[in-house]
Design brief:
Elements: E1 7-9, E2 13-15, E3 24-26, H1 33-41, H2 46-52, H3 59-79, H4 88-94, H5 96-107
Antiparallel strand pairs: 1-2, 2-3
Helix pairs in contact: 3-4, 4-5
């Protein structure tokens, strides 16, 4: 079995199998990107989110997470005009380790 590798997404986001089972986190923390995106979806402002995590993530890091999610969602919608759902690539962005685990299971 091939060992999973650390993958960096931009300046602030990382997927590291040694941290939070490889789920996307903000570099230098165990703060899940998906949790922060959930706060944004709930209407929390970025300053509130940053303070909720004791300023361990910056508003710039939150912006990067949202920007990457939008890019992936836009690409999904453009590529699947008749199926407006989040693509496998977008899902992989938020659940990298889940995608890798399912692929490894399929290969075994």
């Amino acid at each position: 079995m091939q060992k999973k590798k650390r993958i960096e997404y931009g300046e602030y986001i990382v997927s590291d199998p040694e941290i939070c089972h490889g789920h996307l986190t903000f570099k230098g923390s165990r703060i899940l990107v998906a949790d922060v995106i959930t706060f944004v979806a709930q209407g929390k402002n970025w300053h509130w989110i940053s303070q909720a995590y004791d300023n361990r993530i910056t508003e710039e890091a939150i912006e990067e997470a949202i920007t990457e999610a939008i890019k992936l969602t836009d690409a999904s919608l453009l590529n699947n005009q008749h199926t407006p759902h989040i693509s496998q690539e977008c899902n992989a962005f938020f659940r990298h380790s889940d995608l890798t685990a399912s692929q490894e299971t399929a290969n075994n």
